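Quick one: structure tokens for this chain, please?
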Amino acid sequence: MDTSIVLWIVVGVIVVIVVIGVVYYFSKQRREATAAADRRKAEDIRAQAQEGAEDARKNDAEAQRAAAEAELGRIEADRLQREAELRQSEAATFQAKSEEQFREADAVDPDVNDVRRDDVRRGGDAAPERPRPDPTP
């Protein structure tokens, strides 16, 4: 073999090795660039997820606050209902006592007609009649 052929074979092998090295270098650069872009994209997605998690916690806190306010409203409404029932019961008691006092006064008053007095004594439920002043002086 001639030295020039061997020299060309060596040069060819070196060129092939250099070409493979250049291709590998640019391929590696591209992979690293792609990986860096993917990392940035992942970081952006994580940031959005963090914001979403914060919004979810905020909404959950607001929902719990609203539920607590609603519960307080129900408790207050129950308390007011009990108070209203108590006051109605007291009013009915006072009304019954007042009506009994009117009946008692009518039973004692000589100016109340006898029919009404008899009705009151029998426990009738005629409306109490207020005594009218005597028109004669």
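The chain has a mean pLDDT of 87.
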